[in-house]
Design brief:
With 225 residues, this protein is of the alpha+beta class. The chain has helices at 2-33, 96-100, 110-114, 145-151, 163-170, and strands at 54-57, 61-66, 69-90, 103-108, 124-126, 129-131, 153-160, 177-190, 196-200, 214-223. A hairpin with a 2-residue loop joins β2 (61-66) and β3. It is elongated and about 55 Å long.
Length: 225
């Protein structure tokens, strides 16, 4: 009787092994291949049909106290931009710039956003700038060459209008398709001791170099897909 029981137990173990081993192999292959997960560089996502940002002349502004500064924002234009996020960069909130805009977004639209999955722009950001690099300039002919990249992408300093928008800005990742509304602003911040800080927003999508970043006072933010 004992021998029969042992034999039966061995059969059950063998059956279990035959069931478990294929499942283990499938699970391992899924892990190695990324089965069921989003893998790769999310900044290589593409979205077609994103229009040019909209801006209209605006007047007025707002002011508030922040970290000992009196901050004045002058509205230059109302701004409505739908874009593909091709890069994000967080900045330390240890200074007034970081407290105002703790996260920059590199945004693309038009043909740059449409071809972002086929052209590796090697997007990067640092020191409040964004950068791009391609392996061959021939591959960007389809988007209008260097001028196409300059006019259909930009680095953006986002100043949230409230804590809820600030929290949502922190959730934005490369690959997101978003809409940002608000104002292009000039920033003038000062302390009683004479310390000053300023930012002037770009108001031209085709400019380059120092001062070409958009400074956006964000009053609305939504994910489009």
């Amino acid at each position: 009787m004992t021998d029969m029981v042992l034999q039966k137990e061995r059969i059950n173990v063998d059956e279990i092994k035959r069931i478990i081993m294929p499942l283990f192999i499938i699970a391992l292959l899924c892990i190695l291949s990324g089965c069921g997960t989003i893998t790769g560089d999310t900044s290589r996502k593409a979205v077609a049909g994103i229009p040019e940002p909209l801006q209209e002349e605006a007047t007025g502004g707002t002011s508030f106290e922040l970290d000992g500064y009196t901050v004045k924002l002058d509205y230059k234009y109302s701004y409505d931009i739908s874009a593909l996020v091709v890069g994000t960069r967080k900045y330390s909130e240890s200074d007034i710039g970081g407290k105002l805009a703790p996260k920059d977004l590199a945004l693309a639209w038009g043909r740059v956003a449409e071809y972002n999955d086929r052209i590796d722009f090697h997007w990067s950001q640092s020191n409040r700038w964004y950068y791009w690099r391609v392996d061959s300039y021939d591959e960007i002919d389809v988007i209008g060459g260097t001028d196409g990249i300059i006019s259909q992408s930009a680095n953006n300093h986002l100043i949230p209008a409230d804590d809820n928008i600030k929290d949502n800005i922190k959730k934005i990742n490369a690959g997101d398709h978003i809409r940002v509304t608000g104002y292009l602003v000039n920033v003038n911040a000062s302390k009683p001791d004479g310390t000053n800080f300023w930012w002037n927003s770009s108001t031209d999508r085709a400019d380059t170099g120092d001062g070409s970043c958009e400074v956006i006072y964000v009053t609305g933010l939504e994910w489009l897909d």
